[in-house]
Amino acid sequence: MSPLAKLRGAMARARRAMPDIVGPVGRRWERLSQWQRRPFYVLALAIAVLAPANSVGRIMAPASDWKTILFNPIGVYILLALGLNVVVGLAGLLDLGYVAFFAVGAYTMATLATHRHWSFWLVLPIGIILAAFAGVILGAPTLRLRGDYLAIVTLGFGEIVRRIAINTNSLGGPRGISGIPHPPSIGHVKALTYGVLDPKPYYYLLLAMIVLVIFVGRRLERSRVGRSWQAVREDEDVAELMGVPSFKFKLWAFAIGASIGGMCGVIFASKQIAITPDNFPFLLSVLILAAVVLGGSGNIPGVILGAFLVAWLPEYLRDASFGKFVVRQVHHVLPRAGSFSDLRVLIFGGALVVMMIFRPEGLLPSRKRRAELAEGQGGMGSLGGTVVVPPPEESK
Amino acid sequence: MHNLIREFWPSTVDGLTLGSIYALIALGYTLVYGVLRLINFAHSEVFMVGTLGSLFMLHAIGVNSPQTGFALVGVLLLMLLAAMAVSGITAVLLERIAYRPLRRRGAGRLAALISAIGASFFLQEVVALRYGRDLIAFPRVMKKVTLFKIGAGDVRNDKLIVFVAAIVLMFVLERFVNGTRLGRGIRATAQDAETAVLMGVNIDRVVVATFVLGGLMAGVAAMLYGLRFENTQYIAGFVPGIKAFTAAVLGGIGNLRGALLGGLLLGLVESYGASFFGSQWLDVVAFAVLVIVLMFRPTGLLGEALSRARA
């Protein structure tokens, strides 16, 4: 037996041996009625509200400022991942330039609030609308393209937006825009007083938006729009024949996903004081995509889990002894990796490959998604296998 | 406008040089797309490691000053071999690790694309964490002299080598695909994979062959890039990769001659665009070309010749 064949055998065995931890829990969860699920939602919300407590921070981020991390990257990544999930998870469109909408929102806040002194609460809806508009502008000419072409065009769009920000003087050029005002405070409640030092109010603002997005997202998923998205995702031609105007619904997915990205951008900019084009690299699009895919695209709890892991793990492991151990181990191969968070992109890149090989449905997949994959419908979207060679062992 | 007229000939020369490099990388995209119908997103990293390969060959043989005569030819050949070897091996490993397991399971194109994005970032970060994130300079191996002038454009020796190498390799590759048994297998698989399997074509061998060929071409492009621009970076593959993909689409993805035509055309458009709008808009021009081509003629200028047209 050649070493390669051995490796292949070992990989197949590992795939079979992978314990299905979430399966039983997931099935039990699916049997619960809407009413029986309510306590769990309340519990999750309570955890999220109590998360900024210092005692939680000592466990979750012993060496860095937990509240700061909780806003960015954790909260920001979760909101962005929820937005991208509408596009990738629900409608099955691969968007590699999602960061562009985040940038549109952030730059809207930065310009309108610094030059025109508009209040955050006024800019927020404007940023959302502008981002949705950007989504339509990108989507209208390109959404007729097949999946992988769309991915590359969206990537190009993300780069164009960044270049425009770098090259336009009124947007501050490469130095960006600074002096962005904070949102005006509401009343005299401490949790609603937006200052420089305390990240907690911003976290609660983000949390409110996340809850809103989850609520609307779940409604959408079960509406006519959501069912159309799933139909388009599974087989666009069949959906079209059944009377689903696929282009229209794909455009809706783009606009809704973009508006969530824009919303996140406005909030991000209002906390940040200064933004530069470097805040919106292609890498961010990829990290958010990694979050959606790792967590389980199409499933809101999965996406939240994925975004949380992508945002939190590198921060946590940076100072944890395990992280330092790993950095020491790879030191002679990768001498420039000073701390664990330097290895972040490397690990998520590798994780994407491994996930696509072993568990393409993600850590917490939705039941529908699992069924689609078991049917051999292919990975994502409506695109089946192209050159399929019958597997040498294990026939499903 | 004035700028464009004044810099027309220099822009033409630069555009053709750059376009030749795009064309060579584009061949890799086109070959893999023709056979597997997937965009090999990590191809830009195959190119990037090739530039490192030729740089380390220079370090290994201890060349750090301009050479002449036979020494120069030898150095250039060694650089070329190193780049081709490194790129070719990387391409094969990529196929083995990131694509083949998915292919066996019959996973979709987007799953393959995500896997490729993962592999691409993995490779970039390995280089970044090993050699740093700054530009890495090449030693100058060849004295750059102007051979002749076209209009106001200086045709330098390195630029001429890049252009000629691209044209020659293009025809070598086409001879290979049209004239050999393996090439016939590639064309058969591109046309109809299932029938090709039934006719006794070994698909795995064909797929590896396309990755190897694409990798070798990317290696040549990498060496020429090193010769022309004399630097590299962990991210050096990203922009040329996207441009080369644009070039492949422009010429008609899956079409070998289309890759050459698309590459040269994109190089020229970009170069003229840069002298018209200013060089900071160079990448925007290229991306705009991609969007416009996909909108109006998704099959490209020459359509798909390796296989059936499908957009």
How is this structure best described in words?
The complex is a heterodimer of chains A (396) and B (311). Chain A has a single domain, classed as ABC transporter involved in vitamin B12 uptake, BtuC, CATH 1.10.3470. Chain A contains 17 helices and no strands. Chain A has helices at 3-17, 22-31, 34-50, 54-60, 66-90, 99-115, 120-142, 147-167, 200-221, 224-234, 236-241, 246-272, 282-295, 300-319, 321-329, 344-358, 367-374. Chain A is an all-alpha fold. Chain A is 67% helix and 0% strand. Chain B has a single domain, classed as ABC transporter involved in vitamin B12 uptake, BtuC. Chain B is built from twelve helices and four strands. Chain B has helices at 2-6, 8-36, 43-61, 69-105, 109-131, 157-179, 181-191, 193-198, 203-229, 238-251, 256-277, 282-296; strands at residues 136-137, 146-150, 153-156, 231-232. In chain B, helix 2 (8-36) runs antiparallel to helix 9 (203-229) and helix 7 (181-191) packs across helix 9. Chain B is globular. Residues 307-311 of chain B have low confidence and may be disordered. Classes of the chains: A mainly alpha (396), B mainly alpha (311). At the A-B interface, helix 8, helix 13 and helix 16 of A face helix 4, helix 5, helix 9, helix 10 and helix 12 of B.
Secondary-structure map with pairings?
The complex is a heterodimer of chains A (396) and B (311).
Chain A: H1 3-17, H2 22-31, H3 34-50, H4 54-60, H5 66-90, H6 99-115, H7 120-142, H8 147-167, H9 200-221, H10 224-234, H11 236-241, H12 246-272, H13 282-295, H14 300-319, H15 321-329, H16 344-358, H17 367-374
Chain B: H1 2-6, H2 8-36, H3 43-61, H4 69-105, H5 109-131, E1 136-137, E2 146-150, E3 153-156, H6 157-179, H7 181-191, H8 193-198, H9 203-229, E4 231-232, H10 238-251, H11 256-277, H12 282-296
Antiparallel strand pairs in B: 1-4, 2-3
Helix pairs in contact in B: 2-6, 2-9, 2-10, 2-11, 3-4, 3-5, 3-9, 3-10, 4-5, 4-9, 6-7, 6-9, 7-9, 10-11, 10-12, 11-12
